[in-house]
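In response to reviewer comment 3 from the previous cycle, which asked for concrete evidence that the modeling workflow produces usable outputs, we include below a single protein chain processed end to end. The sequence was submitted unchanged, and the resulting structure tokens are shown without manual editing.
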Amino acid sequence: MTAVDLQTRTLTTPRGVWTITAKLTRPDGGADVILRFIATGNRAGLHFGYRRLPTGEWTHLTGAYSERTKALTGFTGKTAKQQGELRYRDLVPLLEIAAELADFPETGGAR
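The workflow returned the following structure tokens.
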């Protein structure tokens, strides 16, 4: 069972908890979103990047980072690469919520 919590900006799944940690609007009208995933039973998490294309389609960005600051640079910089179609569709509700948020943090990498 999955559950989205709007107040904490989290998605709880049997696999673990996903939290929105950053959202940046792209010049083309799309968005870059960074989610932190903490697997069930673990304390440490990893940050994963996702991109909403102007068409509304979500893609997964290549890589994962243990630190949020490195994730911001890696996923929002010019070298960020799209891995392809979003495979874990349970994330879509949380990603859609993130896409509608105001940008945070205030600063990010070059896009």
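The longest helix spans residues 68-76. We consider this sufficient to address the reviewer's concern, and the full set will be provided in the supplementary archive.
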